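pipeline/complex-builder :: batch 7 item 3
reading input block
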Amino acid sequence: MPTQTPEPEKATFVETALKLSGKSDDEAKRTGALDRADEQVEAMFARKYQTGGSPVHRAVWEDQFPIELFVAPEPTTPPECQKVMDASLEVVRRHVRAKTLLNEQRKITDTALRELGDAGYWGLLVDREFGGSAAPFMSFARFLRQMATVDPTVAGLASVHGCIGAVDPIRAFGSPAQKAKHLPLLASGNRLSAFALTEPCAGSDLTALKTEAKLDGDHFVVNGEKLFITNAIAGRTIGLVCLIDKKPAVLIADLPDQENDEFQTKRYGLY
Ligand SMILES: Cc1cc2nc3c(=O)[nH]c(=O)nc-3n(C[C@H](O)[C@H](O)[C@H](O)COP(=O)(O)OP(=O)(O)OC[C@H]3O[C@@H](n4cnc5c(N)ncnc54)[C@H](O)[C@@H]3O)c2cc1C
């Protein structure tokens, strides 16, 4: 069979420039090889994935703002989800009008949280088989934006509960038994959830995480302290970021309903 001789590689711009500036052939070739590898990687990706194809790049360098790339299509909200959304907005509007949304500690009242549960608010992202209404995420996001104009805290609580708290990890990774145990309670608002990551010395720097969970028989024993946790008071089923066998992990933990020797909430100090 005839053998094909590979075409000699063309010198890259960097290689040529280095040679012209008096560098040795060897050095120019080595740096040129890096430049060529970079070009090959770029060539492997479609233009839309390259920096040059990004809307921001185009806005800055091509003096055009491709608005169409930022416009999301209108979500279609199923009527049963819309009903839940309208009812939830009505609950909050009514309490805002009557000035009964907050208690003396400026927290959302238990009554308002319960009425929101009755309206189906906490189950918007939970599947129907577990008592939720399985709203499409885009509809949920738009609805939360609307809720935030009525009361941002109520909107924030649902965002934490449904997106970063316990609902999403259990839906995505839970076993059938875990789903059956937790999701109905989370959908009804019987248990609200929180996401506990930040610690007194671990905020931006998560490698400083200290909270540890150790398996002891059927249970994990957790030791640690968390800070700035949205929904910490109302949220009782939490996504707890901790170290298990020295590796970061998320544990779905039911907090005790009452404080005791092992579990306390306290006022923040200065760190
Ligand atoms: C309203 C609110 C709600 C929150 N809800 C939750 C929640 O539900 N769950 C949860 O886990 N956490 C929550 N947090 C905590 C939040 O995620 C942390 O505050 C955040 O991660 C920052 O950590 P920190 O406050 O310890 O600040 P630090 O990490 O101490 O940072 C302090 C300052 O230093 C800067 N900085 C830090 N590292 C660097 C660096 N390497 N280079 C340059 N600058 C740096 C930061 O930008 C910041 O300005 C909430 C915070 C707020 C304000």
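note: The CA atoms of residues 47 and 53 lie 5 Å apart.
queue -> next item
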